[in-house]
Structure prediction request, 321 residues.
Amino acid sequence: MERRPLGTTGLEVSRITLGCGNFGGIGSAPELFGRGESRDEAFALMDAAWAAGINVFDTAASYGGGRSESWVGDWRSERKVPVLLSTKVYWSVTGDPADRGLGHGRVLRELDGSLARLRAEQVDMYLTHEPDEETPIEETLRALDEVVEAGKARAVGASNLDGTGLEQALETSTRLGLARFGWVQNEYSLLRREAEDEILPICAREGLGFTPFSPLAGGWLTGKYRRGEAYPSGSRMTLRPDPYADLVNEETFRGLEAFAAAAADLGVEPATLAVAWVLGHPQVTAVVVGPRRPEQLATAIAAAELELSASQRHELAGLFA
Prediction:
């Protein structure tokens, strides 16, 4: 699989990243710890990803209440392969709502916990999972600078930042000579295009990488959600529907039907076309996908081989205008 430079970090990443958010839970939601993929299922996904040339596994301290990091660490230790480790800090590993944030001491403590679970002395990619409105960005960046200087993280990035937050962080790093965010990981898909307004232009101007997540918009772009039909058991809309509740309308379903027809014309699955559309943006370095089964991973891998022209991307975007 093709690899690309991640901004100016010096890292080379595969165009598809394995998202491990469903290992032992569904993201960081405490009420869903213990759900999601089992350890054996997680191992099968990691085996399939590595065999396909994926060299980045993306997790977080809070995913599955620490299970995700632990299983990634177990797999990496058993398989003895040089996969790049990407993890994040903000939410609680135990589900404690009071234990969160990006304070100096907490960042240092949480990374040590992540390293222990990952069975590693260093992570390649360390991200802030959410912005922390209660902690000055200077304090967070000083902590991140320390972990880079200590060799515990090769590069640092940010997830779920808006344009103002990203600009402030970059200015602070430059002014104080601190570690700089090398890439951004925000949501981006045909149904969630907010990144185009501010984040992608900043990434282009500052030479940052961009590794979006949720290219399938919580499964909406796979075709699994249909007008007038019950949501499939175990799907995102049965477990955590709120982030995508706004999509339940006639306009969305009409667009999805036209999108499915466009995928059929190209001879690919809708999920493959959706991921290919994201990969086709010139500022996208890699896409984070979170498959539940190896066959779902295969549809994303196929997207890395599907090149769309600018006019094709424009036409597909128009289906959801």
